[in-house]
């Protein structure tokens, strides 16, 4: 397979993870707990601390969170509040210092890196602020990559269909350097959905785009998310983007609180006028999420 040969230097670590999937499927009971199947993500008493010389920095403090299948959730907060740290732990990219994290009933906090890689491959999709496309691959090949590594049938056809849905049918043979920022992020969205993940994590998906392009990318993201019924958890500074989610929570000094963001509209233009600065996020009158055992 020509594409597989071309991908080898980039994808060998993913190939190893795919082998782990096959080896460990029989051992799923090791990290499965009994719980409500509607609850796709469950967090209890989560903390994260790091040591800096003689001091300990608390990044997350006693975080509790429940996300049901099909939910859309926005995590907002000022820079350095801990929201990206939380996203990394929810996605199994990092481990908490203490506490419990369950993703699709898998106890991530008890899993090693290989086991978490398996869970991510089976259930998780990612959209990154920096796009993270493979520069040596075309748009089509970038979208095909997760499907090829997961042995999904008809990967090329699926990739072409997704690129058409994000309005890039005429850009399939272009490399990332030949695409605008908005086009690269649309490729990233198509790539995230090709494996039909149960849950999609998006870290500032419109953070590197101008407001017009960002809105267009957000429209496509929510359109595809609704079509596939994917659970969406996104980190953003943009209150207008956060308001499009069913739920919003805010991080403040490592603590998580539930808030409600109501988009404001200009009566003359009909456009949303919610500001996207950190002061508005902090002034959103958060109500603390009730702690659960």
Structure description:
The structure is a single chain. This protein has one domain (2-288): P-loop containing nucleotide triphosphate hydrolases (Rossmann fold, 3-Layer(aba) Sandwich). It is 35% helix and 24% strand. The strands form 2 sheets. A 7-stranded mixed β-sheet has the order 6-7-8-3-9-10-11. The chain has a 4-stranded antiparallel β-sheet with strand order 2-1-4-5, covered by helices on one side. Strand 7, helix 7 and strand 8 (231-235) form a beta-alpha-beta unit. It is an alpha/beta fold and 293 residues long.
Topology summary:
Layout (H helix, E strand, L loop, with lengths): L1 H23 L14 E14 L2 E14 L3 E6 L5 H8 L7 E6 L2 E2 L5 H11 E4 L11 H11 L5 H11 L15 H13 L5 E5 L7 H18 L2 E5 L3 H4 L4 E6 L2 E5 L18 H5 L4 E2 L5
Parallel strand pairs: 3-8, 3-9, 6-7, 7-8
Antiparallel strand pairs: 1-2, 1-4, 4-5, 9-10, 10-11
Helix pairs in contact: 1-3, 1-4, 4-5, 4-6, 5-6, 6-7
Which structural category fits the helices and strands? alpha/beta
Percent helix, as a range, is 25-40%
Distance from first to last alpha carbon = 51 Å
Q: Catalogue the unreliable spans.
A: 7-37, 275-293
Biggest sheet statistics: 7 strands, mixed
CATH architecture: 3-Layer(aba) Sandwich
Q: What's the helix-strand series?
A: HEEEHEEHEHHHEHEHEEHE
**Quick one: how many beta strands?**
11
Averaged pLDDT = 81
Helical stretch tally: 9
Tell me the strand percentage band.
Answer: 15-25%
- Stated plainly, the CATH topology is called Rossmann fold
CATH superfamily: P-loop containing nucleotide triphosphate hydrolases
């Amino acid at each position: 397979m020509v594409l597989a040969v071309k991908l080898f230097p980039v994808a060998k670590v993913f190939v190893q993870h795919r082998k782990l999937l096959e080896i460990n499927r029989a051992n799923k009971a090791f990290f499965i707990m009994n719980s409500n199947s509607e609850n796709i993500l469950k967090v209890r008493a989560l903390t994260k601390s790091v040591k800096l010389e003689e001091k300990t920095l608390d990044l997350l403090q006693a975080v509790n969170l429940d996300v049901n299948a099909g939910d859309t959730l926005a995590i907002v907060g000022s820079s350095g509040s801990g929201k990206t740290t939380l996203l990394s732990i929810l996605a199994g990219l990092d481990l908490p210092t203490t506490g419990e994290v369950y993703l699709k009933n898998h106890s991530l906090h008890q899993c090693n890196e290989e086991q978490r890689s398996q869970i991510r491959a089976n259930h998780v999709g990612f959209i990154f602020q920096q796009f993270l496309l493979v520069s040596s691959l075309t748009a089509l090949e970038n979208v095909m990559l997760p499907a090829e590594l997961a042995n999904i049938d008809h990967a090329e056809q699926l990739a072409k269909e997704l690129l058409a849905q994000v309005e890039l049918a005429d850009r399939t043979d272009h490399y990332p350097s030949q695409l605008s920022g908005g086009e690269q992020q649309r490729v990233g969205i198509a790539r995230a959905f090709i494996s039909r993940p149960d849950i999609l994590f998006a870290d500032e998906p419109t953070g590197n785009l101008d407001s017009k392009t960002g809105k267009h990318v957000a429209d496509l993201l929510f359109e595809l998310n609704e079509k596939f019924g994917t659970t969406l958890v996104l980190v953003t500074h943009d209150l207008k983007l956060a308001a499009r989610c069913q739920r919003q929570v805010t991080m403040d000094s490592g603590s998580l609180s539930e808030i409600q963001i109501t988009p404001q509209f200009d009566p003359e233009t009909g456009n949303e006028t919610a500001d996207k600065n950190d002061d508005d996020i902090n002034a959103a009158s958060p109500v603390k999420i009730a702690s659960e055992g």
